[in-house]
Amino acid sequence: MTEATRKLLEQHFDTAFAAPAGIAKLHGLIEEFVTRNGADWDNEGCTLADKVGQVVQQLKNKKVMIVFDHRSQTANIVACGSGIT
After folding, report:
1. 53 has pLDDT over 80
2. For the CA atoms of the chain, what is the radius of gyration?
3. CATH number at residue 67
4. What domain range is 8 assigned to?
């Protein structure tokens, strides 16, 4: 991702997230991420919506970022500063 693209995404995150197609795709990506490996937070008193909301907040706060692997055509959410870009 170029620096210019990164800055645009940062500036317009809320707008992009609220766009009908954008929100559905991003929500699906986050939901898939938080349910990997059969994760179930009901035992912790946490719902899927709670976990999705937590990841959205982490994205907004730049604690995590979405990375895309062109070779495998997969996306992942990783901690910022993890060395993965």
Report:
1. yes
2. 14
3. 1.10.10.610
4. 3-79
Assign 72 to helix, strand or coil: coil
- Residue labelled with tokens 């795709």: 25
Domain membership of residue 31 (yes or no) is yes
Closest listed residue to residue 41, CA positions, set 24, 29, 53 = 53
CB 79 within 8 A of CB 64: yes
Structure confidence by residue, pLDDT tens digits, 10-52:
666 666 666 667 777 888 888 888 888 766 666 677 888 888 8
Domain contains 85: no
Q: Bridge-partner residues for 64, per DSSP?
A: 79
Would you say residue 70 lies in a domain? yes
What is the pTM assigned to this prediction? 0.67
Domain count within the chain: 1
- Helix, strand and coil content of the chain, in percent to the nearest 5, comes to 60, 15, 30
